[in-house]
Design goal:
- The protein has 206 residues and is an alpha+beta fold.
- It is 30% helix and 40% strand.
- The radius of gyration is 33 Å and the shape is extended.
Length: 206
C-alpha cells in the first residue's frame, strides 16, 4: 500500500469514527424522497380518478334530465313550430293548460327540437308563468344540449335532435284553474337559427 492510499484509508476511518450515522442518514434521505415521490404520484392518480368519475356522474345526470321517468303519466304535452327554423326573440311561444287541483305534484319538461347545425352547446330561456288571476312569475333557465365531448343529448331522427329537459320536479301548482306558460329565447342573438319546435310536457309525479 502506498503512503497516499494509506492516508485516504485513515481519513475514511476517521470520518466514520466522527459520525458513524452519516451513511445511514444519506440512505434515509434517499428512501424518504422516493417515498414522497411515490405518494405524490398516487395522489395525482386519485385526483384523476375522481375527476373522471365526476364527469361520468355529471353525464349520467344530464342524460336522466333528458330521458325523464317513463312511469309517470303525461298530463299535458304540446309543441309549437318555429317558423323557418329561426327562433326570433320577438317570437314567444306560449302554452295554456288547466290544473284541476292543488294536491297533485307534477314534473315539467322543456322540449326542444333543433337540427345538428345548431351552433350552441347550451340555451338560455326566459320562462314566464301566468297563474289564475293574472299574476306573473318569471325566471331564467339554462339548458345543456351537449356533453363535454360535443355530443348531442336526447334522441335523434335524421338531422333533427329532440331533447326533453326536466325543469321542475314534483311541482305543486298553487291555484286551480287555467295557466299560461311562455318561453322566450334569451341568447345574445336576435334570431336563433336551426330551432324547429319548442314544447312543454307536464307529467304527474308518483
Amino acid at each position: 500500500m502506498t503512503i497516499s492510499s494509506k492516508r485516504r484509508s485513515e481519513e475514511k476511518k476517521a470520518k466514520e469514527r466522527e459520525d458513524p450515522k452519516d451513511s445511514h442518514k444519506v440512505k434515509n434521505k434517499v428512501r424518504t424522497k422516493a417515498k414522497r415521490s411515490k405518494n405524490q404520484s398516487r395522489i395525482i392518480q386519485i385526483r384523476r380518478e375522481i375527476k373522471t368519475r365526476s364527469k361520468l356522474i355529471l353525464f349520467a345526470g344530464l342524460i336522466s334530465l333528458f330521458v325523464g321517468c317513463s312511469n309517470n303519466d303525461v298530463f299535458f304535452e304540446e309543441y309549437i313550430e318555429i317558423p323557418n327554423q329561426t327562433w326570433a326573440n320577438t317570437n314567444i311561444p306560449y302554452f295554456e293548460f288547466e290544473i284541476p287541483d292543488t294536491i297533485q305534484r307534477y314534473n315539467m319538461y322543456f322540449n326542444i327540437r333543433h337540427t345538428s347545425a345548431f351552433e350552441y352547446q347550451n340555451l338560455w330561456v326566459f320562462r314566464t308563468m301566468e297563474v289564475p288571476g293574472g299574476q306573473m312569475h318569471r325566471d331564467t333557465l339554462q339548458f345543456i344540449l351537449q356533453d363535454d365531448q360535443d355530443r348531442w343529448l336526447g334522441t335523434s331522427s335524421g338531422d333533427i335532435r329532440d331533447g326533453s329537459i326536466l325543469i321542475n320536479t314534483k311541482f305543486r301548482f298553487p291555484y286551480i284553474g287555467k295557466y299560461k306558460m311562455s318561453f322566450e329565447q334569451a341568447m345574445r342573438v336576435d334570431e336563433l337559427e336551426d330551432v324547429s319546435d319548442i314544447g312543454l310536457k307536464i307529467e304527474k309525479a308518483k
